[in-house]
């Protein structure tokens, strides 16, 4: 059972506009967002999503609920799966059970609220300080930023003092200031006291916001040539670098409108790009791109472009981003890599060459497949056996990280061509999951257990009258598939062969086809061939229908026995019990109709 405290915390962290917006096109309408209801057909929007209430409601059909309810109704998944999916998107881990006592849960919630409160107060303080910091304002203007953009990203300034936050917090020694990463406690020499001071001093402050717009951390940039150039909040209960992206909260709508997300290397890149007409940009937070970052972005859009400087550091960062992308590289996602000249970042490139030139760079970005192949072949001499083998060695873990897909097959084919091998050899050598290029090998020609009972009866009829296979409905095929595994495989193989021959199928044509693929049907073919009695097609049709019906009856009886064994303790079990009983009755009536004499 998932603790209620976790559910509450989850709903506090997710943004229902973000969740619903992945599946429904929403437009701002007053305080709410409007769209066409996904739960019934309508031409005029009656579906509203309230960011304030974190609730959706349709005035047409009455559907309503939280983000969890929406995932359940829209995706058709269970409560637990809906919670897990939403939790994964915000970097939370669903607990197996509620091990915390009520008092402990209250303590955890109180600590989380306290941390959130100090972050809001600190952010307001930094923003206020920026208004009077002429050196910081001059720096931002020099970078071409307007007050409007500074306000959109809630930029601030941490003054050049050791304890500026003392003016904000009456209890400067409060433990939550350290836990939130705003101040540092530094131990003096043994026996002396402790010195506490602000972590951020004389820096432009970039608040980091989660999906709901709540401040969870900060990035601070120096104004001069000091080091480090960027200083980030440490890991805290609110903030984990590997799970968050700077600017994602501000860029969500722009990403939907642009159709892609642009991932850059720093805070200033994001803010400058927004100023210059590219508000769909985000940045990693002083750490390498992670699979969680990629997952978050692909929840917003199917098209992600990573922008890196063209120097060695940019190449290394791009390679780490490639590794993070591979588990998510599927046929319906587009992942690309953009490399600017070494002397440029996105800001300087646009200012020197213009927005259209940068847009062209975006359009010409390198696809993931090409970048992967370049990485494994660039430093290897493909004219030699050793160079080709080394390229394969370097490609192996990358391809193993990818899910089975058409994209992976395309990369395998390109690698095979470059290294003078075949796709099947690459898949076998790399032990790729679910290989798709390997030539299918015919199964060993070993005898299976001869079919018995109803399976044999149905197979004998179909071998004699293969045209009857065209009359088998999906229910009959489903019933056949649930027979004993060995005989079910034979029966389904036979049905497929008969149906492939079409309505004009004949015993001779079928016998010839079956002999080419398997010897398992030889006894039946021999038996039918040796039978010199004339078979009545109508009688065979009725006999086949009876065998199918008996098979269904057997399966329903087995299901009924399983349901009874459970004690019918749930509404679902009782409902299914009644359904199975009705299905059995329908089959009995069919049998009675078939037994009635025809006039």
Largest sheet: 5 strands, antiparallel
Principal-axis shape: globular
* Computed structural class: alpha+beta
Domain tally: 5
Radius of gyration: 33 Å
For CATH, the homologous superfamily of the largest domain is named as: DNAb Helicase, Chain A
Beginning-to-end CA distance, first to last residue: 63 Å
Question: How many alpha or pi helices?
Answer: 25
Describe the structure.
By secondary structure, this protein is of the alpha+beta class. The chain folds into 5 domains: 86 residues, Zinc finger, CHC2-typedomain (DNA Primase, Chain A), CATH 3.90.580.10; 138 residues, DNA primase, catalytic core, N-terminal domain (DNA primase DNAg catalytic core, N-terminal domain, Alpha-Beta Complex), CATH 3.90.980; 123 residues, Dna Topoisomerase Vi A Subunit, Chain: A, domain 2 (3-Layer(aba) Sandwich), CATH 3.40.1360; 57 residues, Pheromone ER-1 (Up-down Bundle); 143 residues, DNAb Helicase, Chain A, CATH 1.10.860.10. The protein is built from 25 helices and 16 strands. It has a 5-stranded antiparallel beta sheet with strand order 1-2-3-4-5. A hairpin with a 4-residue loop joins strand 3 and strand 4. Helix 3 crosses helix 4 and helix 17 crosses helix 18. The longest helix is centred in the N-terminal third of the chain and has 31 residues. The protein is globular and about 105 Å long. About 3% of the residues have low confidence. Pfam families: DnaB_bind, DnaG_DnaB_bind, DNAG_N, Toprim_2, Zn_ribbon_DnaG. RNA polymerase that catalyzes the synthesis of short RNA molecules used as primers for DNA polymerase during DNA replication.
């Amino acid at each position: 059972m998932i603790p209620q405290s976790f559910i509450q915390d989850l709903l506090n962290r997710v943004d229902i506009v973000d969740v619903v917006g992945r599946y429904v096109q929403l437009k701002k309408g007053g305080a709410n967002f409007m769209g066409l209801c996904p739960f019934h057909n309508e031409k005029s929007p009656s579906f509203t999503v309230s960011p304030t209430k974190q609730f959706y409601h349709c005035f047409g059909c009455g559907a309503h609920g939280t983000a969890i309810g929406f995932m359940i109704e829209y995706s058709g998944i269970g409560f637990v799966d809906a919670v897990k999916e939403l939790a994964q998107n915000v970097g939370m881990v669903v607990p197996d059970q509620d091990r915390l006592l009520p008092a402990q849960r209250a303590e955890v919630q109180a600590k989380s609220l306290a941390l959130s409160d100090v972050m809001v107060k600190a952010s307001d303080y930094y923003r206020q300080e920026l208004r009077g910091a002429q050196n910081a304002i001059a720096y931002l203007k020099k970078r071409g930023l307007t007050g409007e953009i500074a306000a959109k990203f809630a930029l601030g300034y941490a003054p050049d003092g050791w304890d500026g936050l003392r003016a904000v917090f009456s209890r400067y020694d409060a433990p939550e200031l350290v836990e939130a990463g705003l101040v540092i406690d530094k131990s003096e020499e043994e026996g002396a006291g402790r010195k506490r001071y602000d972590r951020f001093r004389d820096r432009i402050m970039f608040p980091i916001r989660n999906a709901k717009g709540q401040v969870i951390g900060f990035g601070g940039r120096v104004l001069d040539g000091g080091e480090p150039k960027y200083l980030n909040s440490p890991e805290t209960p609110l903030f984990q670098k590997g799970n968050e992206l700077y600017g994602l909260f501000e860029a969500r709508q722009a990403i939907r409108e642009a159709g892609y997300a642009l991932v850059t290397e720093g805070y200033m890149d994001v803010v400058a790009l927004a100023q210059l007409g590219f508000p769909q940009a985000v940045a990693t937070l002083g750490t390498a791109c992670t699979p969680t970052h990629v997952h978050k972005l692909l929840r917003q859009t199917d098209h992600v472009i990573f922008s890196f400087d063209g120097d060695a550091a940019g190449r290394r960062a791009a390679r780490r981003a490639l590794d993070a992308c591979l588990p998510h590289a599927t046929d319906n996602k587009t992942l690309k890599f953009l490399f600017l000249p070494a002397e440029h970042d996105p800001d300087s490139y646009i200012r020197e060459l213009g927005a259209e030139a940068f847009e062209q760079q975006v359009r010409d970005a390198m696809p993931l497949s090409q970048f992967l192949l370049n990485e494994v072949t660039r430093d290897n001499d493909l004219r030699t056996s050793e160079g080709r083998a080394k390229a394969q060695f370097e490609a192996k873990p990358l391809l193993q990280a990818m899910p089975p897909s058409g994209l992976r097959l395309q990369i395998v084919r390109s690698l095979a061509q470059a290294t003078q091998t075949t796709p099947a050899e690459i898949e076998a050598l790399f032990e790729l999951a679910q290989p798709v290029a390997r030539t299918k090998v015919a199964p060993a020609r070993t005898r299976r257990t001869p079919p018995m009972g109803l399976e044999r009866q149905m197979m004998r009829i179909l071998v004699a009258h293969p045209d009857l296979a065209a009359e088998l409905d999906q229910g009959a095929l489903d019933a056949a598939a649930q027979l004993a595994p060995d005989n079910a495989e034979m029966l389904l193989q036979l049905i497929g062969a008969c149906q492939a021959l079409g309505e004009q199928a004949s015993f001779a044509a079928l016998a010839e086809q079956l002999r080419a693929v398997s010897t398992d049907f030889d006894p039946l073919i021999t038996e039918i061939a040796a039978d010199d009695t004339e078979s009545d097609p109508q009688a065979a049709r009725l006999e086949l229908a009876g065998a199918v019906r008996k098979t269904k009856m057997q399966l329903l009886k087995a299901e009924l026995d399983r349901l009874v064994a459970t004690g019918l303790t749930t509404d679902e079990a009782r409902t299914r019990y009644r359904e199975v009983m009705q299905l059995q009755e329908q089959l009995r009536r069919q049998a009675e109709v078939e037994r009635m004499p025809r006039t």
